[in-house]
Design goal:
The complex is a heterodimer. By secondary structure, chain A is α/β, with parallel strands linked by helices. Chain A has eleven helices and 25 strands. Classes of the chains: A alpha/beta, B mainly alpha. Flavin-adenine dinucleotide binds next to strand 2, helix 3, helix 10 and strand 22 of chain A.
Amino acid sequence: MTLDRRSFLKFLGAGVGAAGAPMISRAADFMPKKGRRVVVVGGGYGGTIAAKYIRMMDASIEVVLIERNKQFISCPFSNYYIGGLISDLAPLTIGYDKLTANHGIKLVHAEVTGIDPAAKVVATANGNIAYDRLIVSPGVEFRTSEIEGYDDKTDQAIPHAWKAGEQTILLRKQLEAMKDGGTVIVSMPLVPYRCPPGPYERVSLIAHYLKQHKPKSKVFLLDANSDVVAKKPLFMKAWKEQYAGIMEYVPSKKVTKVDAATKTLFVEGLEDHKGDVVNFIPPQRAGAIAVKAGLVEAGGNWCPVNATTFESTLHKDIHVIGDSCLAGAMPKSGYSANSQAKVCATNVVALMNGKETVDLSGINVCYSAINDHESISVAGVYKVAEGKIIAVPNSGGISPVDFSQTRLEHLYAESWLKNILTEMSS
Amino acid sequence: MGKMRSRGVSCALLTSGLLLAAAGAQAGASTPAMLSNACAGCHGTHGESAGPSMPSLAGQSKAAIVTAMKEFKGIPKKDAEGKPVLDKDGKPVLETRTSTVMGRLAKGYTDAEIEAMGDFFAGQKHHSPAQAVDKAKVAKGAELQEKHCIRCHVEDGKEGKDNSPIMAGQWLKYLQVQMDLYTGGQRKMSEKMAEKVKPLSKEELDAVLHFYASVK
Ligand SMILES: Cc1cc2nc3c(=O)[nH]c(=O)nc-3n(C[C@H](O)[C@H](O)[C@H](O)COP(=O)(O)OP(=O)(O)OC[C@H]3O[C@@H](n4cnc5c(N)ncnc54)[C@H](O)[C@@H]3O)c2cc1C
């Protein structure tokens, strides 16, 4: 068979050119590929685990992990910092030294600027890196172009704090600097976005802080959704019993315009809400590199994938995991990204060794703190049915609404963080 | 990389890729590793926990893991004659072990899957975590466990009789949380255990836990 690559891909129906993936320049290979190689883009909740598990399952496969930052700061528990439950981000910060040394992962600290699915090459500032299979776990990008008045300085005045680090610290500083009697506004987008219960946890912990230190102040949550989208009865109970008068939930408030200078949010361009501290969480889509590589479905914001291998349905040999992918019933959480990474790693190794793939079995557990000693959770078990990821019937769910387990869950949440970050960093 | 040659190579690769993709369409049933790796987000890689309130599962006995999972899921209650007890709707009444997320998660697995996970974790090597224990309590606990616990938690807790869990080198915080649940009436002890625990004071029980946590 002497079909060349291009016509072969067309024959497969992948249509490289049609998907609009940018061809990247043929710069020198910065790491010439000798044997079989998997490249992983993004060293966060999904990418670190995919890289590690591939090496644990088959040490004959070379794994190159590409991450722009020298350290990773976890979004999970960043609300603890914003609410003053922890005093620095050290417990949320991990490095890559042990992970790469323990498992022989080759780490490249660089920005990935392009992916060429036809040539199977990733472009970085350091040069090109070829792959046999690529795993992409770049998190989310904000759809700020949909928000009138939003520019690249907006988040300095009204932080999103939806990627942990400087933004988290900025929001905390603003809360600390606010006078007692001030107004805090948190604005959250329509589903789907990263971490469904995250905004509700955030307002709870901001209310916790205000209640203790600035009791004349108030925090409003402007929810673009028409109702609480995660752990509803639990959050409602916490707000009613613990934060009445200090926290107010306002549904169906989709912000379409911002004015950073006056810290004002405009709902559907009409009503305006001005705050002393404004935390605007923009609507989201798959990480920028996934968008650029043509991995996002037409007219959508996320990457469609095979439910067992997480291979993109748009580009062969590229797998997408974590927040960026469409994973059926699995929510966009760090735990989901961790679980998907292992399923993906298992099946990437199987495919590279000509073995049968193994159906997904996944878990999500997500704790949310409601104050400094109580947490609530949602948990789920997932499997594949008819090509889709579904929650296993009659399992999973949220904490008991009588709050009988909240103290224990707070304790377990701390160990969850310790374990999941240790998994990622060693 | 020569262009001509690379084309030839990638064509061959792609052809095999196509065949594999077809095989992938009928993915195999879950494997013990696939099922168990998902647990590691909370319990640590291969079940070796790094969080003091979360138990290590690595090297735990299969019988103990399977029992725990089935108790989390709920075991049909039986009456004196061994017949299942039914509620007013005619559904079997379940006896469930107190838990936070584990009850909700355990319901997502079949008994066969639970057995597979038990095999997986029992087959992993246990490493006792580095943790602070009180020396005086360890010494006192060592004596107490010889008298009270050794029949089921055999050999300094390094083995478990029947479905009794291995205690040696477990996280102290986890053991203490569970003991509080037991003594607070939230977790049910077996009759055998209740009998042995009853004469011990809170301090004595804590000493026993310090001992087990200290065993390497
Ligand atoms: C406030 C908040 C609280 C949360 N709480 C929880 C929680 O309690 N539990 C939970 O399970 N989840 C929680 N989440 C969700 C969790 O953070 C995400 O779901 C998770 O991070 C997704 O993993 P990922 O691998 O997709 O992306 P990330 O973890 O964001 O990793 C992406 C990585 O890719 C890198 N990257 C991206 N693009 C490039 C590029 N072009 N070149 C090089 N590197 C690149 C980034 O620097 C980053 O390190 C929370 C989120 C928020 C915002």
